[in-house]
Design a protein that fits this description.
The protein has helices at about 10-25, 35-45, 60-65, 85, 120-130, 145-165, 170-175, 175-195, 200-215, 225-240, 245-255, and strands at about 5-10, 30, 50, 75, 95-100, 100, 110, 115-120, 135-140. It is of the alpha/beta class. It has a 7-stranded mixed beta sheet, with helices on both faces. A two-stranded antiparallel ribbon has the order 6-7. The longest helix is centred in the middle third of the chain and has 22 residues, at about 145-165.
Length: about 260
C-alpha cells in the first residue's frame, strides 16, 4: 500500500485533490478544523504529501500549526501564493500547484488552462489530476515564481478591475483596456515587491491573457474581491508603491 496523503482542509478544492489521490491508490487522511495536528502526525508520521488546501486567508494559521515532522512534505495550492508565504514558516521545498481549474458546489471540475506543478511530489500530483481528466503540466522549480505571479495577476486584475466594471473577464480586458491595463501594471508592481526581484512581466501578461481567452465568460469579480483589493493596497502602501488606479477603485467601492 502507498504511504498516505494528508489533506488539510476538505472544501471543494480539497475534495478534488482527495478524489484524485484516491483514484491512483493513495489513502487519504483528512485534517479538518477540529483536528489536532499533533495527534494526526502521530497517526500519520510518514505521509507521502501533506497538501494544505485551506483558503489563502487561513494559510498562515494552517502552516504555523503543522508539526515539524510534516514540514518537509508540504504541498500548497492557494491563490495569491508566493515563496515568502512558505519560507517564513521554515518550509524550504514544498510541492506547489498553480491551479487553473475551478470547482464549485454541485458542479463538475472546469478546466481553464493546464495546472502547473513543481516540487518533490509534482509527478504524483500530476498523475493524480490527470486521472480525473484535469490538464496538468510539471514544471521546473525555476519556473515556479513566474507561474505563481501569472495566476496572481489573473486573479487580482480580474477581481479588482471587476469591482468597477462587473461582467466577465473578456468584457473587462477587451472592453475596458484603459482600466484593465493600469490595474495589471500596478498589480505587477506589488508582486515584484513581494517576490523581491524583477519579474518577467511579459510572461505573466501573456499567461493572464491566455487564461482570459480560454474562459471569456468567467465572472470578473466575486465575494473575495474587496478583500483582495484592500490586501493589495496594504502591500503597496507599506512598500511606497504608487497605485492610483487601485486607489480610485477603492474609493468607488467605499462610496
Amino acid at each position: 500500500m502507498e504511504r498516505p496523503i494528508v489533506v488539510v482542509g476538505l472544501g471543494e478544492m480539497g475534495g478534488v485533490f482527495a478524489k484524485a489521490f484516491l483514484s491512483v491508490g493513495y489513502p487519504v487522511y483528512p485534517a479538518l478544523r477540529h483536528t489536532s495536528m499533533e495527534d494526526a502526525a502521530t497517526t500519520v508520521p510518514d505521509p507521502a504529501l501533506v497538501l494544505v488546501t485551506v483558503g489563502e486567508a487561513d494559510l498562515d494559521e494552517a502552516l504555523a500549526s503543522l508539526p515539524a515532522i510534516w514540514r518537509p512534505r508540504v504541498g500548497l495550492i492557494q491563490n495569491e501564493l508566493l515563496p515568502r508565504d512558505w519560507v517564513k514558516h521554515g518550509i524550504e521545498d514544498p510541492t506547489v500547484a498553480t491551479v487553473w481549474f475551478e470547482k464549485k458546489p454541485g458542479t463538475p471540475v472546469k478546466v481553464i488552462v493546464p495546472t502547473l506543478v513543481a516540487g518533490p511530489q509534482a509527478e504524483l500530483v500530476a498523475t493524480a489530476l490527470d486521472r480525473l481528466g484535469v490538464a496538468v503540466k510539471v514544471i521546473h522549480r525555476d519556473e515556479l515564481v513566474n507561474a505563481l505571479v501569472a495566476k496572481n495577476l489573473y486573479i487580482l486584475t480580474a477581481n479588482i478591475g471587476g469591482l468597477h466594471t462587473g461582467g466577465t473577464v473578456s468584457e473587462l480586458w477587451n472592453g475596458h483596456p484603459e482600466l484593465a491595463g493600469p490595474v495589471a501594471a500596478e498589480v505587477l508592481d506589488i508582486q515584484e515587491y513581494l517576490v523581491g526581484e524583477p519579474l518577467d512581466r511579459e510572461i505573466a501578461m501573456d499567461a493572464m491573457v491566455t487564461a482570459f481567452a480560454a474562459d471569456p465568460d468567467h465572472g470578473a469579480t466575486g465575494r473575495s474581491a474587496p478583500r483582495r483589493l484592500q490586501r493589495a493596497l496594504r502591500f503597496a502602501r507599506s512598500a511606497g508603491i504608487a497605485t492610483p488606479t487601485l486607489e480610485a477603485i477603492a474609493k468607488e467601492v467605499d462610496q
